[in-house]
Design brief:
The protein contains 16 helices and 35 strands. With 746 residues, the protein is of the alpha+beta class. A hairpin with a 4-residue loop joins β31 and β32. It starts with 16 loop residues before the first strand and ends with a helix.
Length: 746
C-alpha cells in the first residue's frame, strides 16, 4: 500500500518525500509499527532531506534501514557525537547517510544526506509501544503532523535545520493497516478521526484506511475492553535470565469506593488562536460538563488564557449554585480570541489563586499544548503542589508535553479529538481527581507451582496508580519462566474502618512467541530513567535504543564523489492540522489543503545609501568573506568569529570557503588569546593555513554557546580535507587550547 506525493514547496522546490506507508501489529497492549518513507530526488543536484516528525511519547525505536538502488543497509545506534561525526563525514565525502535522532520526547528528526540526482530511496524504521486501558477502551494513537507552536524553537534547544516546517501546499497522504491478534481480535473498534474498514479472518482482525488519507490529523483507533479482561502478561528469555511484561488494571471489587471528598479544583483553559474551530467548540461543551460535576462543598476557579490570562473569579470560590450559574453564562460565550499561548503565566496565576488550606488542590488543564517552552512549564508545575489533570484537545495535540506535565505532578492525562464526546472523558477525569490514592504497589511473579520467583515494589516512575487505568511493568530475574503475576496495592476505601486495606489482582503470564529480543529491549528502555546519564548511554548502545543521547546512523559509500558539492537542503514540510486555527474541520474529514489562500505584495527594502551604508562599488576591494561583515555590522559593534562566518557563508550562498591565515580570523573577531596560541604554534613550525583550519574544525567544542552553523562546519570539514589537515595537528591545537582555557579559568 502506498500513497504517491508529487509536491512543491511555496518557493517552487520539489519536495523529496513521495510516499508514506504505515503497517502495524497489535497484540494485547503491545504494538509494533513499521513506517516506510519513500524519497526521490528529481533535481539535477545532490540533496539533503530533513524531516522532523512526531511519534508517541512511549515509542521505542527498534530498527532503521534504507534501500537505495537495490542495496539494503541496516542502521546501528551510536552515541550522538559518534553518529553525528559519521554523518557529517559522509556528507563532505560525497557518501549517502541516514541519521535518525530524538530531539525530545515524542519529537524525532530523520536526515537523508547526499541523495544523488535522480536517485530514489526507501527509508524504513520500526518502533514498539505499550498502550494503556483507560476505563473501558484502549487507544491506539499514531501522530502524523506537528501543529505550529507558540514561542521560539530555541526554548526547546532544537537545531535550526530541525525546526518543523509547515505549508498549505503540503497535501500529504498516507496509507495505514493494522493486524490485531489475540483477545482483541474480536472486540469492537472505532476511529473518531478516520474512515476505516475491517474484516476478521482466522481469529485475526485487519483494519485499514478507506484509501489514502491526509496527514493532517492524528490517527486514533479505539478498542473496547473484552468481557472479563483483567490484564495480561508475557515472558521471554534473555540468555540465562527471564524478562516478564505484566499489564494490570487495578480494580476495586472487594469494597465500595467511598464518597468523594471536597477538593479545590482550578480549571485552566486555552483560548489562544490555535484553538479556533473544532477545539474551542469541544472545550466549551466540556467545561460546562466540568462545572456540572462540582459538588456544593468543592471550591473552584476558571482561568482563561491566550497572550494574557483572565480569571473568572478574583480567587477560588465555593461551588454554590450562584457561582455555578455565573460560570455557565460566561462559558456559553467562550471563544478562542485571546491571541498567543502564554500557558506559563496562566498556570502561575492558578497556582497563586486562593486555596483553602484544608483541601487538596488539583488543576484541570484543557489545551492543545502547542508551545515550545515545555521544560520550564513542567519544572514550575512539579514544584507547584498542584496535581495536573490534563485534557488534550484537537487533531494534532502535543501528546508528549501534556503527558509529561501530568506525570510530573502525579496527575493524569487524556486526549480527545473533535469527533469524540468530550463530556465522557471529563467525567472519567473527574473520577481520577477524586479517587482515593493507591499506594505501596508490589509485584509478585510466581511459577507454575505458585512458588514466588520475585517480589518487588513497582519503581517510582510507575506512580501514581488510578483505578481502571493500566499499570505496565517489566521484571528481569534469574529463574524459571513465570506462570502468573499478582499486583498488590493499598488504599483507604473503607470509611467505617478509616484505615488502609490491601487489594490485589492476578493475571496469567504466557510466553511471547517470535520475541527476537524485543521484551529485553523494552525492559532496558524502561530502566533508562533510573540510571546515570553515562550508564544510560551504555545501555542504549548495548540494546540499540535511540535516546536523547544516542541516534541511529547508516552510511552508504558512493563512487565518483569528488565532483559533488555540499547537498542542497530539502526540508519536508507538514500539513497544517485540520480544525486548528479554523482551517478545515475534523468533524467532516476535510483537510486544510482543501482551502485555497492567496498572498499579495512583495517585501520593500530601503536603499543602503539612505542609511549611510556602503554600496556595492564601495566593496569592490574588500575580500568576499569580509564584504557582508562590512555591509551589515557597524564598526563599533563587537562581533565573534562565529557570527561573522555564519552571516557570510549560508546554504543559499554557493561560495566555498578558501584558506584563512591568522590575521584573517583576527580581523573577523577571534579572541586575542586564541590568536596568540596560533602564532606560537606557527612559530613552532606548523603551516599557518593548516593551523587555522585545525582550530576552526574544533571551534564549536570551545564555543558551545555561539557555535558555527551546520553549513559553516561542513565547509570547514571540506577545507581541512583540501588542506590535508592531520588528526595529529587537530589534537595538538586542541591540547593547547584546553591548557589555555584551564589557565584562564584559574
Amino acid at each position: 500500500m502506498n500513497s504517491e506525493i508529487g509536491l512543491t514547496s511555496l518557493s517552487g522546490q520539489q519536495i523529496a518525500l513521495k510516499a508514506v506507508d504505515i503497517t502495524a501489529k497489535l497484540t494485547g497492549v503491545l504494538s509494533e509499527v513499521k513506517i516506510q518513507q519513500q524519497y526521490h530526488n528529481s533535481s539535477d543536484t545532490n540533496i539533503e532531506t530533513v524531516y522532523t516528525f512526531p511519534l508517541p511519547i512511549d515509542a521505542v525505536l527498534t530498527s532503521l534501514e534504507i534501500n537505495i538502488n537495490g542495496e539494503q543497509l541496516q542502521g546501528i545506534v551510536k552515541a550522538n557525537s559518534a553518529a553525528e561525526e559519521d554523518y557529517e563525514q559522509a556528507i563532505v565525502s560525497g557518501d549517502t547517510a541516514v541519521m535518525l535522532s530524538k530531539i525530545s520526547d515524542g519529537l524525532y528528526c530523520i536526515n537523508l544526506g547526499n541523495l544523488l540526482a535522480g536517485e530514489s530511496a526507501n527509508i524504513t524504521f520500526c518502533y514498539a509501544q505499550l498502550h494503556q486501558w483507560q476505563a473501558d477502551s484502549l487507544r491506539f494513537y499514531l501522530p502524523t503532523t506537528i501543529a505550529p507552536r507558540y514561542g521560539t524553537p530555541q526554548q526547546a534547544n532544537i537545531a535550526e535545520h530541525q525546526i518543523p516546517q509547515h505549508g498549505l501546499t503540503a497535501a500529504y497522504k498516507s496509507t495505514f493497516s493494522i493486524v490485531i491478534e489475540g483477545l482483541l481480535a474480536g472486540t469492537r473498534i472505532h476511529s473518531p478521526t478516520h474512515e476505516i474498514q475491517h474484516h476478521i479472518n482466522n481469529q485475526v482482525m485487519q483494519v485499514s484506511f478507506n484509501g489514502p488519507q491526509p496527514m493532517d490529523r492524528d490517527f486514533i483507533l479505539e478498542l473496547a475492553k473484552p468481557n472479563g479482561y483483567v490484564g495480561e502478561g508475557y515472558w521471554a528469555s534473555e540468555g540465562e535470565n527471564t524478562v516478564a511484561l505484566t499489564s494490570f488494571i487495578p480494580t476495586l471489587e472487594a469494597a465500595p469506593e467511598p464518597a468523594p471528598k471536597p477538593h479545590c479544583i482550578k480549571i485552566v483553559v486555552d483560548c489562544s488562536g490555535s484553538m479556533i474551530g473544532d477545539s474551542i467548540k469541544q472545550a466549551r461543551i466540556a467545561l460546562i460538563e466540568v462545572v456540572n460535576q462540582l459538588k456544593s462543598d468543592d471550591w473552584f476557579n476558571i482561568i482563561l488564557f491566550g497572550s494574557t490570562h483572565q480569571q473568572m473569579f478574583n480567587e477560588s470560590v465555593l461551588a454554590t449554585s450562584a457561582n455555578i450559574q455565573i460560570a455557565h453564562r460566561q462559558l456559553h460565550n467562550l471563544e478562542a480570541n485571546l491571541g498567543g499561548t502564554e500557558i506559563k503565566s496562566a498556570l502561575n496565576a492558578a497556582y497563586n489563586s486562593y486555596t483553602p488550606v484544608t483541601l487538596p488542590t488539583d488543576l484541570l488543564l484543557i489545551t492543545d499544548g502547542q508551545v515550545w517552552d515545555e521544560d520550564e512549564i513542567i519544572n514550575n508545575a512539579a514544584n507547584s503542589n498542584h496535581r495536573h489533570f490534563v485534557i488534550g484537545v484537537g487533531s494534532a495535540v502535543s501528546e508528549a508535553f501534556l503527558s509529561k506535565l501530568a506525570s510530573a505532578t502525579q496527575g493524569a492525562s487524556d486526549f480527545v479529538t473533535p469527533n469524540e464526546v468530550m463530556s465522557t472523558r471529563i467525567v472519567q477525569h473527574f473520577k481520577r481527581i477524586k479517587q482515593t490514592l493507591l499506594t505501596d504497589p508490589q509485584l509478585c511473579l510466581s511459577d507454575k507451582y505458585s512458588a514466588p520467583l520475585c517480589f518487588d515494589p513497582l519503581p517510582p516512575h510507575k506512580s501514581p496508580l488510578f483505578l481502571g487505568d493500566t499499570v505496565n511493568a517489566f521484571t528481569q530475574y534469574e529463574g524459571y519462566p513465570a506462570a502468573s503475576a499478582d499486583l498488590y496495592y493499598e488504599g483507604e476505601f473503607n470509611e467505617a474502618k478509616n484505615e488502609k486495606e490491601m487489594y490485589g489482582a492476578t493475571i496469567t503470564v504466557t510466553q511471547k512467541l517470535n520475541d527476537n529480543g524485543l521484551l529485553a529491549r523494552l525492559a532496558a528502555h524502561d530502566r533508562l530513567t533510573q540510571v546515570s546519564e553515562s550508564e544510560a548511554v551504555q545501555i542504549a548502545e548495548k540494546y540499540q535504543l535511540v535516546t536523547a543521547a544516542t541516534s541511529y546512523i547508516l552510511v552508504k559509500t558512493n563512487t565518483q564523489t569528488n565532483a559533488l558539492d555540499l547537498p542542497t537542503l530539502n526540508a519536508i514540510p507538514h500539513q497544517l492540522p485540520a480544525g486548528q486555527s479554523g482551517l478545515g474541520t475534523v468533524e467532516t474529514y476535510k483537510s486544510a489543503s482543501d482551502l485555497v489562500t492567496t498572498c499579495s505584495g512583495v517585501p520593500i527594502f530601503e536603499s543602503e545609501k539612505a542609511y549611510g551604508l556602503p554600496t556595492t562599488s564601495d566593496l569592490l576591494d574588500i575580500p568576499p568573506f569580509l564584504q557582508k561583515l562590512k555591509r551589515y555590522q557597524p564598526e563599533e559593534t563587537p562581533i565573534s568569529l562565529a557570527s561573522a562566518l555564519n552571516d557570510d557563508f549560508t546554504p543559499d550562498n554557493p561560495m566555498g570557503m578558501s584558506e584563512f591565515d591568522i590575521f584573517d580570523i583576527d580581523e573577523l573577531g577571534e579572541d586575542d588569546a586564541v590568536i596568540e596560541i596560533l602564532y606560537q604554534l606557527e612559530y613552532a613550525g606548523y603551516n599557518e593555513q593548516k593551523l587555522v583550519a585545525a582550530w576552526l574544525s574544533i571551534y564549536n567544542e570551545f564555543n558551545p554557546d555561539e557555535p558555527f552553523s551546520r553549513h559553516v562546519t561542513r565547509l570547514i570539514r571540506l577545507l581541512c580535507k583540501e588542506l590535508e589537515v592531520s588528526a595529529e595537528l587537530i589534537n595538538n591545537v586542541r591540547e593547547m587550547m584546553t591548557q589555555e582555557m584551564a589557565h584562564t579559568a584559574n
